[in-house]
């Protein structure tokens, strides 16, 4: 019988929610707590107060990481870290090259 220890312990299991959950939180922040649209933010790249607030949406990944870590799903936790690094790369590109 195959052990179930490694069930749900895969990089994609952490990467997919690590990419989706912050985007959902960012959408909620923009929809309910802000007067700005996504188009306005993209056009005004140096409008950093709102962008700094949106970085807080990545705190969802911190919670995901610790859930996977406490459940001993190390590969899934690596997927969450990788998703956070992808968001960091997009953020740096947005801030310095747009």
Question: How would you describe this structure to a colleague?
Answer:
By secondary structure, this protein is mainly alpha-helical. It is built from five helices and no strands. The longest helix is centred in the last third of the chain and has 24 residues. The N and C termini lie far apart (54 Å).
Structure summary:
The chain is mostly helical and 98 residues long. Helix content is 73%, strand content 0%.
Question: What features would you highlight for this structure?
Answer:
98 residues; mainly alpha; 5 helices
Q: What pattern of helices and strands is seen along the backbone?
A: HHHHH
State the helical fraction. Answer: over 70%
Mean pLDDT: 84
Helical region count?
Answer: 5
* Number of E strands: 0
What fraction of residues sit in β-strands? under 5%
Which residues sit in consecutive blocks of at least 5 with pLDDT less than 50?
none
How is the biggest beta sheet arranged?
none
Q: Cα-atom Rg, whole angstroms?
A: 16 Å
The 3D shape can be described as elongated
End-to-end Cα distance, whole Å, is 54 Å
- Secondary structure class reads mainly alpha
